[in-house]
Amino acid sequence: MKQVGEKKLPQIVLYCFITFSALISIFPFYWMFVMGSNTTSDVNKIPPVVLPGANFIKNAQIVFERIDFFGAIWNSLLISTAVTVSVLFFSSLAGFAFAKLEFKGRDFMFIFLLATMMIPPQLSLIPNFMLISKLGWVDDVKAVIVPGMVSAFGVFWMRQYISSAVPYELIEASRIDGCSNFRTYWNIVIPAVRPGLATLGIVTFMGTWNDFLWPLVVLKDQASHTIQIALRTLNDVYFTDYSMILAGTFLATIPILIVFIIFNRQFIAGITDGAVKN
């Protein structure tokens, strides 16, 4: 009985820790909903309110009246989806080349690629804007999609994942069967690295969805605003309705939650791959 008790105690501690961590992770979303369902005067109370109010629908209606909420959601969804699909394709293709193909200058090019990750993105803000202006893409979603079509982190992630998930013997077998490099990539590599693709896809989608600075610079027209820029316009000069803004912010987080719920199993598999060995 003593041994059984000794085994149960660590499990209880583990479950308590997991429950506590889950509550901490969920609390910001709950708090956002609480603030968005009350009034601004309730938000400023000390101690603050901790229970949801009855004003969420009213605050959401104000958001819909002041901004083109669904239009901004569509722009964000279009941009995030296009960037994510592009990053997954080009990053996995480049990662396959760096991981499994032999060509001159491969290691140098990969090191140079890693070095670009050390450059702050703010340094490229002005040159990129000058280029976008000359192309005539200002106030066009292409100005956000095209510069984000591939990422150095995505190439690095897929290169490391393909190196560990796809053995050389499998590549050699496909070549013996007469497969070209692209067919090997499409029919052999892609099915084997789906968890890694799901992980990179979620990270890319969330990063693009939450991006604020670059869309703010190149998307001036209200019709092309993403949801992050549209929410910014809810701020007034003399008064800020925090409950209304938080109601809109809560609604804007729902698409990200849906994407994570759909791909969470692949995301967890991609993160934990290699952590447990047979």
3D architecture notes:
It is a single chain. Mean pLDDT is 86; it is low at 274-278. The chain has 278 residues and is an all-alpha fold. The two termini are 31 Å apart. The radius of gyration is 24 Å and the shape is globular. The protein has a domain at 68-233: MetI-like fold (Orthogonal Bundle), CATH 1.10.3720.10. It contains 14 helices and no strands.
Can you give keywords for this protein?
mainly alpha, MetI-like fold, disordered C terminus, Sugar ABC transporter permease, membrane, MetI-like_sf, MetI-like
- The CATH class of the domain at 68-233 is identified as Mainly Alpha
Residue-averaged pLDDT, rounded? 86
CATH topology of the domain at 68-233: MetI-like fold
Q: What's the CATH H-level superfamily name of the domain at 68-233?
A: MetI-like
Rg (C-alpha, Å): 24 Å
Structural class: mainly alpha
| CATH architecture grouping of the domain at 68-233 | Orthogonal Bundle
Give the helices and strands as they follow along the chain.
Answer: HHHHHHHHHHHHHH
Strand content: under 5%
For the secondary structure, the number of strands is: 0
The low-confidence runs, each spanning 5 or more residues with pLDDT under 50, are 274-278
Number of DSSP helices?
A: 14
Instruction: Report helical residue fraction.
Output: over 70%
Net shape = globular
The major pleated sheet works out as: none
The end-to-end distance, rounded to whole angstroms, is 31 Å
